[in-house]
Amino acid sequence: MGGVTTTTSSRTRLSPDERRTQLLDLGVRLLATTSLEELSIDVLAEEAGISRGLLYHYFGTKLGFFEAVVQHAADDLYRQTAPPAEGEPLERLMGSITGYVDYVVANQPGYRSLVRAASGGNDTLRRIYDDTFRALADRFFAVDTGTIDLPDTPAVRLVLHAWQAMTEALVLRWCDDPAGLTRDDLLRVIVDSLLPLLAALP
Amino acid sequence: MGGVTTTTSSRTRLSPDERRTQLLDLGVRLLATTSLEELSIDVLAEEAGISRGLLYHYFGTKLGFFEAVVQHAADDLYRQTAPPAEGEPLERLMGSITGYVDYVVANQPGYRSLVRAASGGNDTLRRIYDDTFRALADRFFAVDTGTIDLPDTPAVRLVLHAWQAMTEALVLRWCDDPAGLTRDDLLRVIVDSLLPLLAALP
């Protein structure tokens, strides 16, 4: 992967924005096999075939680089969980959840390290994590992407937050040990659990 | 609190085990208002009215002290979530969950810091955390404490794990902002969500 990128980038003249985006794409791709703790400026510079100095030029600091890569990965997650434009509400929810499960499966080291960092007290990564899951919850209420007809109340938001936490725990544990459940079984448990949870609200 | 403890402990001759337990009790009490990050040997020594050297004598290292206090707190959580001996399965589950919610509410700083440490990559605290929640799940299958008649399969364990994660997220967020839900409403959402989750299993 690094070789291909190096060849391409050294032969193509890119604008600074294009080059920055290319480096972020590379950082996100590395998160599919590497945790945030293992991902360093050195690794990225080597993979991209450029100097550390140039990387610092684009991202300022090590934290700036982490932040930009994680935000880029979060944007990918958001795109890959977009519900299909058509279909019954629960079918559209199933489409969105399928995107989430497949994203986590394909990006386990990076996703797990984000959860660790966000839960472990890194405020910047916590903010990106919280903003992302709030944006995913927003979709339930948006006119064009709404998957289920829900009133946007604090109590519904609270339950959606808990359901997201449950989904994350379920998918990460299932990646470690499927416990006899197929991907379809897993998707069914996640989707079927939402309405009963909401129904228990007063 | 510190004053009372100091007076008691300086006037009473305790065995080493009793003194150690007394110090652990004090550490756990401090976790009701203090995070693990803020809880130091210095703070405990001052509250207990003894020297740091004596504390190291009992706990070896700083990590040994943290580990012992967190294990002691986890044992408390386990005791306080014991289901009542009598009653219908869902009533007994409600009793156990009520114990959990009240424990978290009463020990927020300590509980949150344990979650942070366990999620953030502290292996020792992660082990205590995982062991505790596995023991809480074990109760569902024990003959004398079983709250619901469940087969002990990997798939049921997986769902119980996710339900515990959901419950924790729900309670911690509710502590920050009740979203119009009373404690009884919250308990109802938690208890009512379990059977539909399990019902979605193939």
UniProtKB/TrEMBL annotation, chains A, B:
<keyword id="KW-0805">Transcription regulation</keyword>
<dbReference type="InterPro" id="IPR050109">
    <property type="entry name" value="HTH-type_TetR-like_transc_reg"/>
</dbReference>
<dbReference type="InterPro" id="IPR036271">
    <property type="entry name" value="Tet_transcr_reg_TetR-rel_C_sf"/>
</dbReference>
<dbReference type="InterPro" id="IPR054129">
    <property type="entry name" value="DesT_TetR_C"/>
</dbReference>
<dbReference type="Pfam" id="PF21943">
    <property type="entry name" value="TetR_C_46"/>
</dbReference>
<keyword id="KW-0238">DNA-binding</keyword>
<dbReference type="InterPro" id="IPR001647">
    <property type="entry name" value="HTH_TetR"/>
</dbReference>
<keyword id="KW-0804">Transcription</keyword>
<dbReference type="InterPro" id="IPR009057">
    <property type="entry name" value="Homeodomain-like_sf"/>
</dbReference>
<dbReference type="GO" id="GO:0003700">
    <property type="term" value="F:DNA-binding transcription factor activity"/>
</dbReference>
<protein>
    <submittedName>
        <fullName>TetR/AcrR family transcriptional regulator</fullName>
    </submittedName>
</protein>
<feature type="DNA-binding region" description="H-T-H motif">
    <location>
        <begin position="40"/>
        <end position="59"/>
    </location>
</feature>
<dbReference type="GO" id="GO:0000976">
    <property type="term" value="F:transcription cis-regulatory region binding"/>
</dbReference>
<feature type="domain" description="HTH tetR-type">
    <location>
        <begin position="17"/>
        <end position="77"/>
    </location>
</feature>
<dbReference type="Pfam" id="PF00440">
    <property type="entry name" value="TetR_N"/>
</dbReference>
